[in-house]
Design a protein that fits this description.
membrane; single chain; transmembrane; transmembrane helix
Length: 73
């Protein structure tokens, strides 16, 4: 039973990139490298977007003066 589960998972889950490469006729190493680069790029884009938003909020806080009432001029 355990061998059947292991064989099923290896065949259907861990062999995805090699099956895709066989289908499109691409070398497995190239496709794995592209997958790794895309994973790091999407992770990096999230940090870049965060820092851009942080910068714009900082600029807004520096230039926009918050006044509680009209008499604070």
């Amino acid at each position: 039973m355990k061998e059947q589960i292991r064989h099923f998972t290896e065949k259907n889950w861990f062999n995805v990139i090699s099956r895709i490469s066989d289908k499109f006729g691409i070398r497995v190493t190239k496709l794995r490298l592209i997958y790794i680069y895309l994973a790091f790029a999407t992770f990096g884009l999230a940090f870049i977007g965060y820092f851009i938003m942080l910068f714009f909020f900082w600029v807004k806080d520096v230039f926009v003066v918050k006044r509680k009432s009209v008499f604070d001029l």
